[in-house]
Amino acid sequence: MKKDILRKKITKIFNNHKLSKKHAEVCADYLIKAELVEAKSHGILRLKMYCDRLKKKLINPRPKIKIKKISSSISHINADNSIGFVSADIAINQAIKNAQKTGIGLVAVKKSGHYGLSSFYAEQAVKKNLMVFCFTNAPPALAPYGSKKSLFGTNPICFGVPTGKVPFILDSSTSIINRGKIRQAHKFGKKIPFGVALNRSGKITTNAKEALLGTQLPIAGFKGSGLAWMVDILSGVLTGSSHGGKTKDPFDDFTGPQNVGHLFITINPKIFVGKNFMNEIKRNISLVKRLPKAKGFDSILYPGERKNKAYKKNLNKNIFIPSKVLKEMDELDVI
Amino acid sequence: MKKDILRKKITKIFNNHKLSKKHAEVCADYLIKAELVEAKSHGILRLKMYCDRLKKKLINPRPKIKIKKISSSISHINADNSIGFVSADIAINQAIKNAQKTGIGLVAVKKSGHYGLSSFYAEQAVKKNLMVFCFTNAPPALAPYGSKKSLFGTNPICFGVPTGKVPFILDSSTSIINRGKIRQAHKFGKKIPFGVALNRSGKITTNAKEALLGTQLPIAGFKGSGLAWMVDILSGVLTGSSHGGKTKDPFDDFTGPQNVGHLFITINPKIFVGKNFMNEIKRNISLVKRLPKAKGFDSILYPGERKNKAYKKNLNKNIFIPSKVLKEMDELDVI
Lengths: 335, 335
Description:
2 copies of one chain form a homodimer.
Chain A: H1 3-16, H2 21-36, H3 47-55, E1 66-69, E2 74-78, H4 84-102, E3 104-112, H5 118-127, E4 131-136, E5 157-161, E6 168-172, H6 179-187, E7 197-198, H7 208-213, E8 215-216, H8 222-237, E9 260-267, H9 276-289, H10 305-314, H11 323-333
Parallel strand pairs in A: 2-3
Antiparallel strand pairs in A: 1-2, 3-9, 4-5, 4-9, 5-6, 7-8
Helix pairs in contact in A: 1-2, 4-5
C-alpha cells in the first residue's frame, strides 16, 4: 500500500475511534515509521489493539494531558490515559526544551500506554543535538531471576547520541528477543527461536503461544533481570505509574487502562567539553569501525545504523500489509 | 588479618607512596570494603598496581582536583590524574549535593583512574535517599560486536535506589564476567568459566592468561556490545576523558596516566510522587519477592542484597590475605 494512502487510512480509523485529527496523525506517523524501520512487530499489526482499547474506553481518546513544571529541568506529565504515542511525543518535546534551557532535562510520564519504539523519541532528541535516555515499562513478560513467573516487562533501555551522521540509537529490550516478535510469530503461525522463552512448566519452547503463556528469558540471567528491574523502578515507581507486574497487557487485559510510565533524560552533550564533543564522538565511532572484523562480518555497525538503513530503503516503497491485517483494517474502517 | 591492622598497613603503604593521610585512608577504606563484600578481585590484590603507578608518577599522589560548577545541577571535575577512589569520592559527594539542591545532579569526571566498584559510590547516594546512576569506562577488554579485537572496557552499568532496607544496587559489567575475576584466576593459576572469553585466535578459552591476551565476550551479543559502547560515550566522550579503546590498562600499560572518565547522575526519587515513593518501592520489591520460586531457589534477591549480606557477615571477621599478596604488601611497606 502507498504510504500516503496508508497514512490517510490509519488517520481515518483513529479519527473514527474519536481521536482528534492531530492525535490520529501523530499515531499514524509512528505506526508507519515502525513499518519503515522494519520493526513490523510494532507497526500496523497493533492498530486493532489500539482501537479495541479505544472502543472500551481503556485509552482516553480526548485526554486532558497536564504538564506540571517542577523546575526548569524537571517536568511531570499526567497523560490522563492517552494513547502512548501522544503523551510520549509531548514528553520528549518537553525534555528537549528543558535540556536546551538548562543542560539537563528529566521528564516523567504517568497514566500512559504503549508508545511503540523508544527509538522514535530518542531520535527526536538526537536531531536536536541532545543525548537522551528513554525508559518505559511494559506488561509482565520476564520472570525475575530466581522466579518461574513473569513479572517484568521486556523493559527496554534506550540511549541516543548525535554523531554528525546517522544517530547512534541503542534500543535494547532486556529480554533476549522483544515480545512483539513473539506476538508476530503467533499471529502468523511461525515458530520462535530456541532458547528465548519457557512454557508454563518452565521448559524451553519454540511455540509462540506457549511462550506468551509462559515466560521470556532475560538477557544474561541475573544481570538482565536486574536491568529490567531498574527500568521498572525508573518508569513505574519513580513516575507514579503501575509497576511490579501491575502494568496491564494491552492485548489481553481489558480490566482497566494500562497505566504505563515513561522517563526521559536529556543532556546537552556539549555541556562539559563544548564543540569538541562532535569531534570526539566522530573519532570514537571511527576507532571502532576501523577494528579488524570478525569472521562473517564486513563492517561494524553502531546501534541505530541498521534501522536507519532500512528506513531509507523503504521510504519511497509501498508498505506490505499482510492480508490478515488488511482485513482487520477494513473492519475497523467501517465502524 | 584484623581489619584495623590491615587499614593501618594499607594507609601507611599509600602514605609511603606520597598520598596524603586523608587520601590514603579513603583508598584503604575502599580496598577493604571490596574485601568485605567479597569482591576480592577489586580488593587488596590491586594494591601493588596502584603503588606501581604511583611510583612511576602515572597516578598523581598530590592532585589539584578542580570542581567546575556549570549550574546548580551540573559540575565538571578535573581529577588531575588522581587515584580513582579519591576523585570519585569527591564527585559522588558533589552529585549528592546537586540533587539535594535541585532534584537532579549530573557530575562528570575527567583525568581519573580505576575507582574500584561503582556500587561503592552508588551506595553513598542511596544512603542520602537518592536514586543514582554511576558510569565509568575501563581499558580494552571486550570486542565490539562484529570485531575480533578488544576495544570497550567491561564498562559497568550501575544503578542504585533506596528501599527503606538494604539498598537496591545493580552493578553489572557489560561483559559476561568482570575482568578482575579473570585477573584473579590468572594470579592464582585458576581456570575461568567456559564461554566467557576468546583467545587471540578467536576460540573459546578457559585459560586466564589466554583470555587476558584475547577478548572477553559481552552479555547478549549486539545488545551488550551496544551497552558497553553507551558507557564508553557517557564516561569517555561526554566527560572529556579517553575513550574508543584509548583508556590505558592499569596493570600492563605504563606509557601514561589512565585518563578514565566517570559520570554520576543523581535524582531525588520523591521529586514526582513525594513520600509515596518509599511505599511504592517497598511494594515493588515485595511483589517480586513473593513470586513462586524457580527450581533451586528458596528466595528472590534484588541487586545489592548478596553483597550486603557478605558485608555484614565479614564485618567483624579477620580478612584473609593470600600469602602472595602478603608478600607484596611487605615489599611495598619497606619502600
